[in-house]
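hey m, so remember when u said the tokens were messed up on ur end? i reran from scratch. heres the input so u can diff it against urs
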Amino acid sequence: MQAVADTSTLGLRSCGVWTRAQALDVLGRGQVDALVRARTWQVPWRGVYADGGHELDAEQRAWAAVLAAGGAGADPRGPRLRAVAYGRTAARVHGLPLVDDLDPATGSQEHLLDEVAVARRLPRQSWAGRELRPVRTALSSAERVRLPSGLWVTSPVRTLVDCAGLLAPDALVCALDAALHRGLVSAQDLQDAVRARTGRAHSTALTHAVRRADVRAESPPETLARLLLQPSLPRLEPQVELFDDAGRTVARFDLGDEAVRLAVECDGKAAHAGAAMVAKDRRRDRRTEAYGWRTERVTWFELRREQSAVLRRVSEVHAARAAQR
């Protein structure tokens, strides 16, 4: 009777992702290919496998990219690591929002891109409509961290620095806001990074984004609305709270101008859809209207595709309320 190969250890030390070479240590080529054909195994990149039937999370996806670029260990040719999760891939691992990852409003599909920092030059890889971009760059020990799974990833600060050369300006500020709000980086960390990058590639983009970042922002839509509206309406501030006479919080607005009592509330990619959410929003608006506040609601689509219309609408309402004061 033929013994059944034990595949339980595959991916055990790499977050459920493994290479073809590792698979061939326990299975024959025909068996491996049969598992792929049957979709029992999925193929994130050529020569890299994971169990089928589920979508890889950010850390598994980063592992797949790192393994496809040579692995997470040391480069036999020198002291550097062969591959480290980098750029967008590292940002996803750190849980930073990337607004151009599969944006239904703009059609942006940067979710198809992965980046890894590598010790030696490697060609780009394409697989199933996705692209893996190896970036040959030096990382100091302070610029990379090792996760419990063993994955090496650029530190939050270094990730944001690298994203200055990869993301659109508004997308970069969204990532910075999230990192600041969650405490992954401090304002001082970012200032230090700006000084360290002076005169180097993408330093201007990083400098401008850091100047526009705000620790108070709690979501990408809020950041996008602030970037759009604040240059014309500088009194709009993030996370403005409305209190009742007893000091209890009645509402907290995404953006608010207390002088004219104008609030702006922003929907995300998954908008406040459905009758229940619409009714809840209307009840909240009626409650805050009793305190003299006007709320303007903007959708993700408007923030991404109809910026001029949003700015005009909110500016007109602001001007009308200011004239009433």
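this time it looks ok to me. Residues 222-324 form a domain with the Endonuclease; Chain A fold (CATH 3.40.960.10). if urs says something different then somethings off w ur setup not the seq
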